[in-house]
Every structure is written in structure tokens, then in C-alpha cells.
Specification:
The protein is built from two helices and four strands. It is of the alpha+beta class and 76 residues long. It is rod-shaped. The model has no long low-confidence stretch (mean pLDDT 85).
Length: 76
């Protein structure tokens, strides 16, 4: 009798898991296409304070990288 209850519970649990997988709105993480282009960016160190800043945000004055225009002005 107890064996039948355990078997019934296992079958119901498996069916619930299968229905959840079939009707879930979230895509399977293994099927998601990954972006082939890297989103990383080079980091440059500010000459004034030493903070590393993404290359797209850097201020370059006299071929020297700074994290902000204020630091470029102070270093001159």
C-alpha cells in the first residue's frame, strides 16, 4: 500500500514537472543565442587620480587620459 502511494506521488511529481516545462514562458537558457560581439571595453587609468575609466568616457588632453575634465584642468 505504501509503495503504491510513493509510486503515485512520483508519477504526479514527474507529470507536474513536465507540464511546467512545456507551458513555461521562460525560454530554455540553453536555447538562448549569445551575442557574438564582445560588450567589454578597454579601461584607461586617469593620470590625476588613478581611477580606471571606460575608454568611451575618458577625457584625453595632450595625449594623457583623465576621468573628467576637472582632473584634466587641475593637472595642467
Amino acid at each position: 500500500m505504501i509503495t503504491r502511494l510513493i509510486l503515485l506521488f512520483a508519477v504526479v511529481a514527474i507529470l507536474l514537472w513536465l507540464f511546467k516545462r512545456l507551458f513555461a514562458e521562460d525560454p530554455d537558457p540553453r536555447k538562448i543565442e549569445h551575442d557574438t560581439q564582445s560588450k567589454s571595453e578597454n579601461m584607461l587609468q586617469c593620470k590625476f587620480c588613478g581611477v580606471h575609466v571606460p575608454e568611451s568616457s575618458i577625457v584625453i588632453t595632450n595625449d594623457t587620459p583623465y576621468c573628467s575634465q576637472d582632473h584634466a584642468d587641475r593637472d595642467q
